[in-house]
Amino acid sequence: MHYPIGLLFDLLASSSALPWNITVHFKSFPEKDLLHCPSKDVIEAHFMSCVKEADALKHKSQVINEMQKKDHKQLWMGLQNDRFDQFWAINRKLMEYPAEENGFRYIPFRIYQTTTERPFIQKLFRPVATDGQLHTLGDLLKEVCPSAVAPEDGEKKNQVMIHGIEPMLETPLQWLSEHLSYPDNFLHISIIPQPTD
Amino acid sequence: MEEDEFFGEETFQHYCAEFIKHSQKIGDGWEWRTSKDCSDGYMCKTQFQIKNGTAVSHRGTSAHVQTCLPMEEALEPPLDDFEVMQTTTATEVIKYEYHVLYSCSYQVPVLYFRASFLDGSPLALKDIWEGVHECYKTRLLHGPWDTITQQEHPILGQPFFVLHPCKTNEFMTPVLKNSQKINRNVNYITSWLSMVGPAVGLNLPLSYARAAFQDEGNVDRQGSSIEPKSLEEL
């Protein structure tokens, strides 16, 4: 899948010790289940399409459309060549918002669970409530994935994981979007069963 | 959910319901599918086409692409023996699936599609293009309209080709503005699909357009949103 490797690890192998041992297959590609990855250009196209979609949510595509082709290229090259400053010179513009607002228009996020047929949950969700209060990670889950959050007095059934850590549910979503998004500008959130050790 | 949405999910479902009503009248094969968790759904259609032995030789018509054939006709050999000489198989039947989903990120409908041979093996994008008329190929390759990429179907999770939605608003806005000017109701889905569909082998009979303004009186009666489950009652 075109999923970030960190997401795959959180979702499928978070209880494994590192290094993560994987099996690579060279035959019988499952055409009906997985996307092909024929070239670097395809990965670049997929990455840019995610960045554009994230900006459609955050800024109605205004920021990404105002950029020149060379800026898009710099974003991709910065990621490809592991050049932090090169990447962030462009990405910081995607993390800005108008002074009069308190955050992005909507938050780009996807919630993954291995127990559902649907590959991920993605919905429109505003970072700021009408009364000006910042929505939290907990607010998001309650709204779009209520089964993931344990009832007040109940036992914690699931871990809510981003980049291998469990952020506090009280964390403002706007902050998470600015600081914990993946390079494609999405928050990729894994809901996995609580380990029983 | 949000008032400033120009084309929200409820509106999308409403137009799909109207579209499917007409499809049922003319036997065009579109149906609504609700996701397993019942939170949303999509419109879909399957059609079968014959692929000739050779890719070229349009002969000025799109006669080699036939839609909605009963299976017996689909297995007849082609009339032109010269074309048959070039390949090992005389004809192949290809199954096309078209899905119309709603993108909340872009707040427009999106066309997903895939094609496979009858044994289930999928077609690559370049094979699908062989069934598309030349004029659409040029538009797709050079036009500012849309690009096609392979992506995961947001509800089924399987690989589909997608006509990227980032330009949809651009070409739909003049259509909708004009219809407001001449005070004629337009089914967004009908207009949109009639524009993007042909580029990927999907054609809409003209009667859909006539149905859109015949339904003008009915739209208000039905209300602003139609729940997907009412489609099953039709």
Automatic annotation (TrEMBL), chain A:
GO-annotated biological processes: autophagy of mitochondrion; cellular response to nitrogen starvation; piecemeal microautophagy of the nucleus; vacuole organization
Signal peptide residues on this chain, from the entry's feature table: 1-17
Domain Autophagy protein ATG5 UblB intervals: 106-191
GO molecular function: Atg8-family ligase activity
Major localization class: cytoplasm
Subcellular location: Cytoplasm; Preautophagosomal structure membrane
InterPro entries, per the entry: Atg5, ATG5_HBR, Atg5_HR, ATG5_UblA, Atg5_UblA_dom_sf, ATG5_UblB
Membrane topology: Peripheral membrane protein
Residue ranges constituting the Autophagy protein ATG5 alpha-helical bundle region domain according to the UniProt record: 41-96
Main function: Involved in autophagic vesicle formation. May play an important role in the apoptotic process, possibly within the modified cytoskeleton. Its expression is a relatively late event in the apoptotic process, occurring downstream of caspase activity. Plays a crucial role in IFN-gamma-induced autophagic cell death by interacting with FADD.
Family: Belongs to the ATG5 family.
Subunit and interaction comment: Conjugated with ATG12. Forms a conjugate with ATG12. Part of the minor complex composed of 4 sets of ATG12-ATG5 and ATG16L1 (400 kDa); this complex interacts with ATG3 leading to disruption of ATG7 interaction and promotion of ATG8-like proteins lipidation. Forms an 800-kDa complex composed of ATG12-ATG5 and ATG16L2. The ATG12-ATG5 conjugate interacts with RAB33A; this interaction is bridged by ATG16L1 and promotes ATG12-ATG5-ATG16L1 complex recruitment to phagophores. Interacts with TECPR1; the interaction is direct and does not take place when ATG16L1 is associated with the ATG5-ATG12 conjugate.
Stated name of the protein: Autophagy protein 5
Source organism: Lipotes vexillifer
Classification lineage: Eukaryota, Metazoa, Chordata, Craniata, Vertebrata
Automatic annotation (TrEMBL), chain B:
GO biological process per UniProt: autophagosome assembly; autophagy of mitochondrion; protein modification by small protein conjugation; protein transport
Gene: ATG10
Family: Belongs to the ATG10 family.
The keyword Ribonucleoprotein appears for this protein: no
Record-level Gene Ontology MF annotations: Atg12 conjugating enzyme activity
Pfam families registered for this protein in UniProt: Autophagy_act_C (PF03987)
Subcellular location: Cytoplasm
This protein's UniProt keywords: Autophagy, Cytoplasm, Protein transport, Transferase, Transport, Ubl conjugation pathway
Name recorded for this polypeptide: Ubiquitin-like-conjugating enzyme ATG10
Function: E2-like enzyme involved in autophagy. Acts as an E2-like enzyme that catalyzes the conjugation of ATG12 to ATG5. ATG12 conjugation to ATG5 is required for autophagy. Likely serves as an ATG5-recognition molecule. Not involved in ATG12 conjugation to ATG3. Plays a role in adenovirus-mediated cell lysis.
Naturally occurring in which organism (per UniProt): Lipotes vexillifer (Yangtze river dolphin)
Location (main, coarse): cytoplasm
GO cellular component: cytosol
